[in-house]
Recover the amino acids of this structure.
C-alpha cells in the first residue's frame, strides 16, 4: 500500500517536500470509495483529511427536507477546505461529500493539519491554496443565487461539471440537476430545451452534451 500511496503522491502532490511525503507515508491510509458512497456527512465527526488522488467528489449542503445546494467538485490533487475548517473549529462536518465516480483517497489523520503547518512550507501553501480556491468557488455559488437567473446557473453548473470530469458529456438526469440546483425537474427540462434550441447543448436520455 505504501508503494501505491507514494505513486499517487508523485502524480498528484509533487510539490510536497521529501520529509512531508515520508510523514504522509507513515500515517496515511489508501481507500477506494464506490459511486454514491458517503465520504462525509453533515454532523459527522471529522477525523481525517481526505486527499483526492483519483475520481470526482461532489460537495453540497442538504436541509432537513433533503433539498440540496451544490457547492463544488473535488478532483485529483485536491482536498475539502470546509472539512479542514470544521475540524479546526468544532470537529463536526457541515457538508456532505459523495463520489460521483469510483474515487481513491489518501486519508491523513486530522491531527496532522495543524502539526504540519509550521513544519512544511508545501503543506502550508497547499492548505492556504485550498482555502482560497474553495472560497472563490463559494463566492460563485452565492453570486449565482443572488444575481443570476436559473438559466445562467444551469449553464454554469454544466460547464463546471464538464470541467471537473474533463468531458463534455454530463451523465445526469433532469431530476438530479434540479435537486442540486434546488429547482424543479420541469424548470430544468424547459431550460435545457431552450439551451438546445440555442445550440449550446444536445439533450439525450440521462445524458447532456455540452456543445460550446
Amino acid at each position: 500500500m505504501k508503494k501505491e500511496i507514494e505513486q499517487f503522491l508523485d502524480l498528484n502532490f509533487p510539490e510536497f517536500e521529501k520529509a512531508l511525503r515520508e510523514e504522509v507515508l507513515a500515517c496515511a491510509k489508501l481507500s477506494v470509495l464506490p459511486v454514491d458512497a458517503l465520504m462525509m456527512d453533515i454532523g459527522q465527526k471529522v477525523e481525517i483529511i481526505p486527499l483526492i488522488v483519483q475520481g470526482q467528489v461532489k460537495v453540497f449542503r442538504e436541509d432537513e427536507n433533503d433539498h440540496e445546494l451544490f457547492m463544488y467538485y473535488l478532483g485529483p490533487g485536491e482536498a475539502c477546505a470546509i472539512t479542514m475548517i470544521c475540524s479546526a473549529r468544532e470537529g463536526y462536518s457541515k457538508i456532505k461529500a459523495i463520489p460521483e465516480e469510483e474515487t481513491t483517497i489518501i486519508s491523513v489523520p486530522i491531527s496532522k493539519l495543524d502539526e504540519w503547518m509550521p513544519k512544511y512550507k508545501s503543506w502550508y501553501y497547499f492548505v492556504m491554496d485550498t482555502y482560497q480556491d474553495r472560497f472563490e468557488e463559494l463566492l460563485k455559488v452565492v453570486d449565482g443565487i443572488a444575481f443570476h437567473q436559473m438559466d445562467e446557473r444551469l449553464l454554469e453548473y454544466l460547464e463546471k461539471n464538464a470541467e471537473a470530469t474533463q468531458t463534455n458529456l454530463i451523465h445526469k438526469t433532469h431530476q438530479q440537476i434540479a435537486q442540486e440546483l434546488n429547482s424543479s425537474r420541469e424548470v430544468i427540462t424547459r431550460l435545457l430545451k431552450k439551451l438546445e434550441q440555442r445550440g449550446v447543448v444536445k439533450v439525450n436520455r440521462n445524458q447532456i452534451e455540452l456543445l460550446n
User: Anything to note?
Assistant: The chain is about 45% helix and 20% strand. The first strand starts at residue 29 and ends at 33.
